[in-house]
Structures are given as C-alpha cells and as structure tokens.
Design goal:
CATH topology of the largest domain: Rossmann fold
Order of helices and strands: EHEHHEHEHEHEEHHEEEEEH
Helix content: 25-40%
Distance between the termini: 67 Å
CATH architecture of the largest domain: 3-Layer(aba) Sandwich
Strand order of the largest sheet: 3-2-1-4-5-6-7
Number of helices: 9
CATH class of the largest domain: Alpha Beta
Number of domains: 2
CATH superfamily of the largest domain: Formyl transferase, N-terminal domain
Number of strands: 12
Shape: elongated
Strand content: 25-35%
Largest sheet: 7 strands, mixed
Structural class: alpha/beta
Amino acid sequence: MKTKVLLFTSQDIGNDVFSWLHARNDIDLTVVTQRTQRDEIYGYRATLDLCLEKGVRTLTPKRIDNAFLTEVEAMAPDLIICAYYPRIFPRRLLAVPPLGCVNVHPGLLPHYRGTFPTPWCILNNEKEIGVTLHYMDEGIDTGDILVQQLHPIGPDETGHELYKRSMKLCADILIENFDKLLRKELPARKQPAGGSYYNRIAPQYRIDWHQPRSEIRNQIRVHARPYFPAYAFLLNKCVTINKASFIELDDYRAQGSGTICKVFENMSFVVSCVDGLLLIEDYDMFPILRPDDIALHIRPGNRF
C-alpha cells in the first residue's frame, strides 16, 4: 500500500521536495501550497504550477480553518510534512497523521527558532548555518529533534543567497532521512532548555557609519540585491550598496566616520568607519542627472 503524504510547502524547497516525492511509486501525494507575490519578485517557481503540470491533487486554503481541517481528517494522511509553509499548525491538525507532522527548519534548534532566521546568522557573525528535521508540536519550532546538520556560510554570501541555499539544505536533509522516518528509525530527542528566537529583520537599513565596520558589512550582505540594498546619503544623492569588504591601507589616517578616504580607478572607494575601513565595491547612485555625477560625489574628503 502507498503511504499517504500531505505536503505543506512553498517556494524553491517545495519544488525540490515535491519532485522527489512525486517520482516515487510508493507515495500517495497531496500538496497544500499557495502562489504568492514573492514567487514572481524573487524568481521562485510556484509549487502550485508544478502540481498542476503533473496532475497532483493540490489544496490552496487561505487559512487553516475548521472546513480545511475536516477535509484533511477525511483524507487520513499517514504523514504530514511542512517545508517552508507560513502557517502555525493547530493541535487538531497535528493529531491527524499516525506518523506525525515533521518540519524542516534552517536553524540549529533550539537556537534560531522563528520565521526568518537566515539573515540573523549573518548579522550574528555565524560561520555555519544549521538545519534541523524535527517533529512539530503546538509551539514554534519547539518539537522533538530528529536530525541536525551544520554547513559553512560563505564569507561573502548575501542574505538572499543564504536563504535560497537554506531551502536546498533543508530539502536535502528531509530527502536523505525520509525512508528512515517512514520506518521509524530516527530517534527523537527533546530540545534542550534555552535557545533563541528570531523574526524578520527590518526591510531597509540606512547605514550608520558610527557602527563597527563588521556590523555595517553584515547589514550590507543581508540587504543586498534582490532585496532593497543598504543605503546612505552623500550630498544630494542616495547611494545603495550591495557589496563591501574589509581593507587596510598603510597611509590611512583616522578620519570622521562616513568619510571617503580613497577612490580607485574603477570607482570603488574606501570609507572610514569608527574602527577601520570598508571598501565599497558594488553600489548605485540615485538620481543620476549628469554623466559626471558619480565622479563629483565619489571623491576623497566627501562625507556620507
């Protein structure tokens, strides 16, 4: 007999997990998903489109209400999987599948619980990101842990790049352990006390050049394209910055925070921070009214 799986998912991870489950002949798959503006804005392929293409039964509830719960109970799934589905599961839903409800989360639980932990890993100077496969309970990312992995964070990896990669890492840990999950071969362990919870970051960041340069650089990484980049005002222009790196100059003398110290031929430039220098490598300036606007503004001595 086929195992009935109800997959709650969205975004790129939904496509990876759906495609793998759909290719198996021992799975009776139903998908709960939705199409959102994020799919179009950030270039994700909506899982709903893939389900319609493959002829897989798909549910698109606006909320998890009594009518939807009654429908799920009638389906009697053996296992429920949650992979980046933005809703909290009520007790009634958690009680339906005999194999339980499992979730994949981009955080090394009990640390980095919450809806959007990946940018905080960068802001907190983490060198690794954790992914966790765990049972779900009525809390937010508080259920018993099944499997965990750690993966390095690239030194220049942006917030969007890490977010997209976290979906692939979460899909991989689920797929690698799926059969053990069905056979109940994964020992579950309670989460240790403590931990941390992180919600979304502010959608915009205006650079404060009086902050440590590491913090400024991390904020630039987190907000880099396709998000709204970190920004600062220079004279009568707004400068949005997508990439910055540490730089040491032998002839550097401490200047006021936000002062342009040096400009290179390719128009990358060095800015003084409270504790050192940042090389600004990728930026845009608005509004550009004349061909020489950038050269007039990006010059030593000018100050943000």
